[in-house]
């Protein structure tokens, strides 16, 4: 039995040391030592464990474990390992009423598992090691899971494949974790060769989008300073073009700038986007350029349109097979369903699966599309869903996230059903591209301000009691570099649903367009139709 008087976690530990500390505690104890550790070390213990993807949930002594999936790219063997972890370790306690044995796709292409116990972590990590996966730096003040176009290398429209760069990021974040896991706050990077915006580029701390230099060299223009939550901000395009061989060095240089100038103490103001705002994009460009080992150029011809894209549907790839994007409304699948996804990838494709930033998934190398489309799973999780299932994104929320006010997965299903039942079939094609995002608290895990309609859980109070309510934002559109604005606060849930329905009914009727879903546009519509 270990001596609990010795401190288990401290602020000098990176992911490797945190994992070793957990392993030691589990090995040396014949009981679950977590309660004693938490009592002795409090928030420090939870804070360090986040560097290994472990996050405290509402369920006492149970955790959420976030699996880092760089670029959203995973294979069938790896997904079987994930399914096995969900099956074996994602179980709630006896008599519980919350969901269990599920994994959820995040807006950063990760998969999250709930109900995990402290003593189970070493075995889970061992299983992931065996298939080349990790949870390191999936949470905490670190370089988070790097994202990419989910159709990278499959969509023939792509100018550059970035899988090798994602592999470089994977190696870099591990080899230099004294840099990547010791940052003022969490830090997010995306690299895409896709001409469209399937990767919410402008919400990243650092982003690389396809561009062409005057001599025809393909590379990337660089954007910096985007993000939501505290101090929401659209990323600036820097006057900086980098070749593919310079990308990882540019990431390293940017992290060095963040560590040099970022505030490690003031949590409310130490986001990277705040630093970009304070220094200005020109100064940030100079600081990054001065730290990149090779010479860099000014911004080149952009090949990135910024047009929205989700890659759902059936698409021919460059090899004559197909990739198929399947809609997983709000991203939650059971263990059995994850095993089925792995089977479909092996049976009908090349074994490749991709997670998307819209909580959906893609299967690659499909050689018999008709056979895939006939599968029961694909009948449920369709490549061509209705506009409401396609639009919805929701965060983890209650009953798991400790910050959540309400369960937005359940509310999202209710809202989708309400819209399906209420809105006419005629004119639904006008909703193509609709984004409807739902958050369980005032954080922005569901990217509510990037949606045409954002919904946020809150509470309202009448003369008798508090009750569940919703805030509504309008006007988010990254293609127009625009974040949504909150237009209704503390609406009772039913009234909020009716308001959303009325607005979308006007779009179906052609009286509004998706571009009109701004506070001004909707305001003019209601005033013109006699509403206050």
Topology:
Layout: H1 15-28, H2 34-41, H3 43-49, E1 54-56, E2 63-67, E3 73-75, H4 76-89, E4 102-105, E5 111-116, H5 121-130, H6 163-175, H7 177-180, E6 189-191, E7 206-212, E8 218-224, E9 236-242, H8 247-261, H9 272-279, H10 281-291, E10 301-302, E11 313-316, E12 322-326, E13 332-334, H11 335-348, E14 352-355, E15 361-366, H12 369-373, H13 376-380, H14 387-391, E16 392-394, H15 408-422, E17 436-439, E18 453-461, E19 466-474, E20 485-492, H16 493-508, H17 519-528
Parallel strand pairs: 6-7, 16-17, 17-18
Antiparallel strand pairs: 1-2, 2-5, 3-14, 4-5, 4-13, 7-8, 7-10, 8-9, 11-12, 12-15, 14-15, 18-19, 19-20
What would you say about this model in short?
The chain is α+β, with helices and mostly antiparallel strands. The chain has 17 helices and 20 strands.
Largest sheet composition: 5 strands, antiparallel
Q: What is the 3D shape?
A: globular
Give the C-alpha Rg: 23 Å
Task: Give the strand line-up of the largest sheet.
Answer: 1-2-5-4-13
Structural class: alpha+beta
Mean pLDDT across the residues is 96
Number of strands: 20
Helix content: 25-40%
For the termini, the CA-CA separation is 69 Å
Figure out the total of helices: 17
pLDDT below 50 for ≥5 consecutive residues: which ranges? none
Q: Note the beta-strand portion.
A: 15-25%
